[in-house]
Design goal:
The chain is an alpha+beta fold and 278 residues long. It contains six helices and 13 strands. The protein has a five-stranded antiparallel β-sheet with strand order 2-3-1-7-8. Strand 4 and strand 5 form a beta hairpin.
Length: 278
């Protein structure tokens, strides 16, 4: 059984622990272990029989901030891992995967072009210009499975409320380290194309409280057809957007906000609407 220590530090854990922070933190932690298991077992989702193979248990708590000691049993996986991936343990493979994600998103936020290359020796190389980072083990496989959990940890970070989140392996070896000054690092950077465009689309959802909605963009438009989120950044009233939902098609005058995620192709994050007309 692998031993782990999970800690969340900040004002939210003084004089008792805030339940919402503890619950969200433990949920994200479970998603880290689930991601490990999915990557190594090559499964898309976990079923009840898989929960019997992967068992993570809190063995004791420690005073301080929120500190929990855990044990994780990976029935049927731990013995084959060294022969398949060339790493000594699952926790080491996860540590390497976190470092892989950190290097990847640091380069992306610096605005640099990033390539990920995997060779036949079980290594993954992150390439940006003359910079090469080499990682051992299934870092890409695990990284793509745990990035959602890392972003859940990120959501918890606040300057004073939750200053630090950490997962350690045996003998205190750091596996995951997040601090409040890293907030937003693991979310893909975005870029707004400042050239206005016109889009013909159908508004099928609108939230009048948040001034956001969803629209279906038709074919033969400046962006590929499909369903997109949009935000009203113009001076048109909420009522005009609600009335526009009764029209089969409307025209957006808008800007396009792109999302650059180094783990996938560039995508459109949202449409920024400056005006709408029937």
């Amino acid at each position: 059984m692998d031993s782990y220590k999970f800690e969340m530090k900040g004002r939210a854990f003084d004089d008792g622990d805030r339940l919402d922070k503890v619950a969200a933190g433990l949920t994200a932690l479970q998603h880290v272990f689930d991601g490990q298991f999915r990557a190594l077992s090559e499964k898309k989702r976990l079923h009840e029989q898989d929960r019997r193979l992967l068992q993570v248990r809190i063995t004791r708590y420690e005073d301080g901030s929120f500190i929990a000691h855990l044990g994780a049993a990976y029935t049927g996986l731990q013995t084959i891992l060294p022969f398949i991936y060339g790493t000594a343990s699952i926790w080491e493979a996860t540590k390497n995967s976190f470092e892989f994600l950190k290097a990847l998103y640091e380069l992306a936020h610096q605005g640099k072009e990033v390539q990920v290359s995997q060779n036949g020796n079980g290594n993954t190389v992150v390439i940006s210009g003359d910079t090469h980072h080499v990682f051992n083990g299934p870092v890409y496989q695990i990284g793509t499975q745990i990035i959602g959990a890392i972003r859940e940890f990120d959501d918890l970070l606040e300057t004073e409320e939750v200053e630090r989140i950490a997962l350690d392996g045996p003998e205190g070896v750091p596996i995951v380290r997040l601090t409040s000054d890293m907030k937003g690092l693991f979310f893909p950077p975005t870029r707004v194309d400042e050239t206005p465009v016109k889009l013909t689309c159908d508004i099928y959802d609108f939230n009048k409280y948040e001034n956001i909605g969803k629209a279906r963009v038709a074919v033969d438009q400046p962006i590929p057809p499909g369903n997109y989120k949009f935000k009203n950044i113009g001076d048109q009233s909420v009522e005009e957007f609600i009335l526009s939902m009764t029209e089969p098609q409307v025209v957006f005058s808008c800007l396009i906000k792109y999302e650059h995620d180094p783990l996938m192709d560039n995508t459109i994050a949202e449409i920024l609407v400056m005006g709408v007309a029937a």
